[in-house]
Amino acid sequence: MIRVANEQANQIPFSLFVSLLHRIANIPAHNTSSRVTACRSPAGILAKWVENLQNNYSPLPRNTTTHVFSLLFPEEDSHRKYDLQEARLSQLLPDCLDTSTFPPTSTARLKQWNKQQNSGCLGQEIFALQSSNAEPFIGPKSLQDINVLLDELASTSAFSDKTLHADYSLSPPRSKSSILKSLFESLPALDAAYLTQIILKDLRPILYAPPVASTSRALLEYNTNSKSVLTKEQFMKTWDPSGSMLKMYRTRANITEAALCFEAGGAIAHPRPRWGVPVEIPKSAKGRSPKHALNVLRSSSTIWAETKYDGERAQIHVRFRGQGDPQITIFSKSKRDSTMDRVAVHPIIMEALTGYSMGDIILDAEMIAYSDDRRRIEEFWHIRGLIARTAVGARAGGYRRGETQHDSRTQDSCPSLHSNSSTASTLHLALVFFDVLQVGAASMLNAPYYMRRSLLESIITLVPGRSMLADRTIIIDGQVRQAEGQKRLRETWAKRITEYEEGLVLKASDSTYGDWKLPWVKLKKDYVPGYGDTIDLVVIAAAWEKDRARELRVSTSTLTTFYIAVLSNSSQMNIDPGCKPHFIAYFTASYGLSREQLEEFNFWIRADAVDGPKPSVDELCYTYNMLQTLPKPSVFVRNPILVELYGAGFTKAPQSKYYELRFPRITKPFRPSERSYMECLTLRDLWAIALEAVGREAHDATKYKDLDEWGRVLWGKLGDETAEEQRRELKRQRSIACWEERLENIDRERSRKRRKADLEMSP
């Protein structure tokens, strides 16, 4: 009883944790030229706070490490999902906030969150609602109290970890509203503000708020480095100077596992992966040219190029339990447990492991869409539909095939652009395996790549169209010099581009998994300036989008996201020059422009803007339709603005029948005096470009009697098949030669400029 009483007396107030957050938030923004002292950096403030915590609360209560870690980085807390975003939470909180701190008359304004101007940060809005005579105080709740209630709140979500559902399965479930009342009861305004952002899983807008409200000042006088950001690696190094916690996290990318390692005194000197706990996925370097990519791995004598397939990452854990059925767990790239989403690949996994008998195993693979008819990997966007049709549980049926509503205006006819798949019945999910991380009790993370690959080849049973190994080519070995290696790499990359693969990943033969000295190097054509897919379309609307705004550190007055549209009635305009152009807006672009360009583009749009999500037809010089799944814009432009867009191939969004650029970036907006918005692509032009880019030939359907005949020609099933095959092979060889020449020019240009580029890493 005495021990329990002491534990309760030693509980850490949640308000003390909030004081850490508030000190970090109060660090003033600085120019990049000014130096930040250690004590005024987030890491410096954290170090002082941890020292104070240990002095006053030692020994720390059990699970303190887990509690602090998960609350400081709520976005990393993959176990807890709350199904709450600003729109819904703002409706629930007025009835949950403590009335002694927040007058009901002021909290009622929260329900108008979407209908009025606000800071873009719900936590800040809540703090501003406190009573004018409210005094700061230390709240009654402890870190443990808050975490227990957050666990209960997460148990109401079907997307939370199944262990949370089990913990609360015996007691009658409470509603979200009831749990929120318990969470916010008696909380000071500051605690309530930060807790709100923790529930929203995003502390950025309150920790690293925009330094000023003005668009011009925020974009021109500051940048993303104006406020230092605390990283989880900095936290782990500060909390555990021995490094055991960080070492464990890299092996078991789970907050609880890393925290338990620290609280056990770093007893596990050499951590190894554990079944059912995701392994941290290493970052890769971006290769800017063949020469640049090889230079990153110049200290290795043997380098391989693996094909990078366009799919979804799947980290596969399989546990063999005697005579019982094996247990499969699959983690996505974001460490989310996606086992039941990907139930369709479970039989494929077991087929691939038919001859395996060495105990538990962890494999790295890419989940792709495969067409039996075409005997090839299909486009990335097919994966969503296949998962939705085969998933079990919360995400089943999440994708609904459909189209945006269009009016009766005449639109250009593009049959293949509208088609979602002509071979849907033969499409299925498949796996391409490329690494092995654990075999039995043996960790393979520190084994060299050549050993892991050899072991993988001995384990996986290949089944064409179902379980495959990543294709690879030797680029440099003991017999090949650097210049010859560059030539080989150019040839290999050119072939992959021509075959419409996503790219290559270079791997040093002697590199370990996650080797920071010899990292994997990705080569994708859009990583090379000027070599991605480029098209001209128009911007017809814009909005402030929270994620992009929080990256840029700008307020809601700044337009960050632009609605891209294509001309859809060019044929009608040729017949009737007096009709208005009709545009279809079906995707957005938030990247590409520098801060200076974005500031200028904001000025252009504001000067010609019509406020509101739905302007009248008379206010615009055009008509439009917009994909219904897009968020509503805040302004439209009276006259569309022509922009040059750059991307990484083409894809289709859910409920859209049109191809759009993947990872679109605006590279240049054009003034009306430079180029007219009527120079943008038409729907038919875009259709032809997209089909060519994804490897489908765009013949003119009007040359044939009907669409069925056109389709047969598209797939080479009409006329002389031999001649058609020869034509395609000649086209392929010409494309390879063209890309080899382009890549050689890139290498030559880099050599001439002797460019020393910083190594950029990507997930």
UniProtKB/TrEMBL annotation:
Family under the similarity heading: Belongs to the ATP-dependent DNA ligase family.
Superkingdom of origin organism: Eukaryota
Protein known as: ATP-dependent DNA ligase family profile domain-containing protein
Keyword Nucleotide-binding in record: yes
Any one GO CC term of the record: DNA ligase IV complex
Alphabetic keyword roster: ATP-binding, Ligase, Nucleotide-binding, Nucleus
Compositional bias segments (type: Basic and acidic residues): 400-410
Pfam families with a match to the protein in the record: DNA_ligase_A_M, DNA_ligase_A_N
Annotated ranges, domain ATP-dependent DNA ligase family profile: 422-548
